[in-house]
Amino acid sequence: MDQQQYQGQGKARAQRSVERMCIGCRAQRDGHNLLRFVCSPQGVVILDASGHAPGRGVYVCCDGICLRKALQPTKMALTLKRAVLVPDFDTVCQEVRRLLDKRLRACLGLGQKADAIVSGYALLKKAFAQARVLHLILAEDIAAARAEEYRFWCIQRAVPYVTLFTAVELGHIIGKSSRSAVGLTVPRFLELLRATLISLERLETAYCRA
Length: 210
Ligand SMILES: [Zn+2]
Known about the structure:
single chain, 4-stranded mixed beta sheet, 9 strands, binds zinc ion, alpha+beta, 8 helices, Hypothetical Cytosolic Protein, Chain: A, CATH 3.30.1330.30
């Protein structure tokens, strides 16, 4: 997804926030925070990654427990009032994981363009000293001693951190060379990042327990 598309969606999102019901737990939530599935005229149910595919949509929380309930063929058939072919849970989880991964990358890429990201040891050290870092992302392959130093700064300043992507991937996402850590400094991007991280965590937790 390019920046313009993403911003366009963000704008559309802000403009119309519609409550939808998750067919797994029956809770009403902002539709934009739910996964959407659509049913083809042939009765094949697919995950609608764009959220705008034509056809009757059903909504499910981005949560392994709700997904497992929703993807029961009888549940889906009752909801859609027709015979349906439902994708299996593992396949959907993989698709959702890819979707969330893409969202994380988009969030960091946009953050970099919006000057909401600090990277590189010296700049991060300065940003931590100025209490500007709101969330830190550590690369999976960061050197142990450096990781320990960053974690110490995080603990000192009560800054949450998460381990994501390799250093090469992190650098690539923000259009730079390899980066072992990047810090977010703007609340708007932090919210976007957190929402995606929470979805990812809920998906993984339920997935592992299954
Ligand atoms: Zn739910």
